[in-house]
Write a structure and sequence with these properties.
One of its GO terms (molecular function) is L-valine transmembrane transporter activity. By secondary structure, the protein is an alpha/beta fold. The protein has ten helices and ten strands. The strands form two sheets. Strands 6-7-8-3-9-10 form a six-stranded mixed sheet, with helices on both faces. It has a four-stranded antiparallel sheet with strand order 2-1-4-5, covered by helices on one side. The structure holds adenosine-5'-triphosphate (ATP).
């Protein structure tokens, strides 16, 4: 069974059909990319999967369970983590604290209780700290743990965002333009990080405009144009698909 199965998904904004009858699935352990021109509906698709938007039609199954229309925090607790086009780290907090917040979503104590330092949550707090540190180590940025997150270089902030998403222990990680705003060295580094995340057994679905990154790391690619899926295939086939070249790659 596919880890994620999107069926006939649609979203209408007034008279605009932003996503139209989109179906695809993501097998466990795969890196799958969604590409397409500006306004093709990629971010809307992500928002439908993660519960930020309610679909007008269709369904989303995670590991066979219908998660269509659930709230974002519920979907996060079912095992889908995401990062955003614009990095959203908390200012005034260290890298470690930012990553610990991701972990709190999965903890029993809850974020408020832990902020109040209730005694019964201190042991849990220690475990969360340890788990967050392990995520930083996995991504090779443990030495940044005590620095203020928003003072870091852009590429490092992106890695912190990935660590925070990993701290949620997701089965599926959705990355919205992970290379946006990064230089070629930082983009190559993010590519390595995404590949190493897959090595941890986490399935990845990403939206990305950087075609060298997409072609390098993806197992399969879905192409959207005007809200519709126009192609789905392995990278080599997508690169030589005439319709894809016409609407997107040939730009
Ligand atoms: N909340 C909204 N209300 C109305 N229209 C919207 C809303 N969100 C997106 N749209 C429209 O839906 C279409 C798809 O937008 P979306 O942001 O999903 O495209 P995208 O493929 O992610 O584009 P980009 O590559 O520029 O990020 C666009 O025409 C956009 O203007």
């Amino acid at each position: 069974m596919a880890l994620l199965a999107v069926s006939n998904l649609g979203k209408q904004f007034g008279g605009l059909q932003a996503v139209s009858e989109v179906s695809f699935s993501v097998e466990r352990g795969m890196i799958k990319a969604v590409i397409g021109p500006n306004g093709a509906g990629k971010t809307t698709l992500f928002n439908l999967i993660t519960g930020s938007l309610t679909p007008s039609s269709g369904s989303v199954l995670l590991d066979g369970r219908d998660i269509t229309g659930h709230r974002p925090h519920q979907i996060a607790s079912f095992g889908i983590a995401r990062t955003f086009q614009n990095i959203k780290l908390f200012p005034g907090m260290t890298v470690l604290e930012n990553v610990m917040i991701g972990r709190h979503i999965r903890s029993s104590g809850g974020f408020i209780a832990s902020m109040l330092h209730l005694p019964w949550v201190l042991a849990e707090e220690q475990r969360i700290r340890q788990a967050a540190l392990e995520r930083l180590e996995m991504l090779g940025i443990a030495e940044l743990a005590e620095l203020e997150a928003t003072s870091l270089a852009f590429g490092q902030q992106r890695a912190v965002e990935l660590a925070r998403a990993l701290a949620m222990e997701p089965d599926l990680l959705l990355l919205d333009e992970p290379a946006a705003g990064l230089n070629i060295y930082e983009t190559a580094e993010v590519g390595r990080l995404i590949s190493s995340i897959r090595q941890l057994g986490i399935t990845v679905l990403l939206v990305e405009h950087d075609m060298s990154l997409v072609m390098d790391i993806s197992d399969e690619i879905v192409v959207l144009s005007f809200g519709r899926k126009i192609a789905e295939d392995v990278p080599e086939a997508i690169q030589s698909n005439e319709e894809v070249i016409k609407v997107y790659l040939g730009e």
